[in-house]
Known about the structure:
The chain is α/β, with parallel strands linked by helices. Helices cover 25% and strands 25% of the residues. The two termini are 24 Å apart.
Amino acid sequence: MCFVDDRRLLRMPLNLVGIGFLEMPFDGKLNTSKPGYLELAVQKSPKSPPAAWLWRPESEILGAGIIVRVGGSFIWPPPNVNPAGIKRVILVAGGVGINPLISIFSHLYQYPPAVRPQIQCLYTTRFPRSRDHHSILFLDRLRYMARDEGSDHMLTLFLTRCSEAEKIELVEKMGNAGGNQRTVCGRINHKALVDALGPVQERQGVVVYVCGTPSMTDDFVGFLKWSEGMEEKRVLCEKWW
């Protein structure tokens, strides 16, 4: 368990009858010799009963059992879409909305390069108060997977509440990760989404996953599903509120 500004990152061992979870270490490769765990980043939100409970003092919740409900349609492969025809997967995350998207990225990262779709991750989050890029949820893991030699994955980090000088300082600390990673000031906008979609004639092979705040999700899903060359079933979102 660790804290990232007003977010808590939990790693919980799993003991589920009939379901096996394997450990996903930093290099993205499955380890079948170690027990699995569930990772979950939780935004501090006193008005939300589940979040408030998970933000109780560690001494009160460590070792406690929880019930995990499995299901939903925000999954890979997407329902009603032939995965063989998917050439590009776009992951659009806002804040703790990175939770399900890091899972999808990690899963696809295990595929052999010859059959793995190209992945573009657009991730918006607040500039860390600590000024330490390691404190941005899952960023180290995302950067590792995006810079995989020979891959054409793209990671664009959008930092809010930061100046251009602060962004430059953070990028210098992160070091050179190659041309497939960018860091910009501001929020994800419609232009960034259009750039990620690529040429209209290639969009029949594109699926998009969106997870973020309610206003961001509603805006982006509405924009994407009406974009030329796209259709509603290839734009998926997670409405957790």
